[in-house]
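Researcher: If convenient, please comment on what follows.
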Amino acid sequence: MFEQSLIQLGLSYTQAAVYETLLKNGPLPAGKIAKKTAFKRGLVTRSWKIWRSPV
C-alpha cells in the first residue's frame, strides 16, 4: 500500500515493509513482525536500529 512511497522517500524495501506492518497492526514485537512480513527476526531488528539511532 505505502511501501513504494516509503521506498521513494529513501527507506529500504525491508524498512518500508516493517513500517507498513506497524502502521497496519500497531505496536508489535519483532517476532510477530517477522511472521507477518516473512522476514527473519534479526533483519526486522536491524531495520529498527536505523530508526533508533540519533541524528
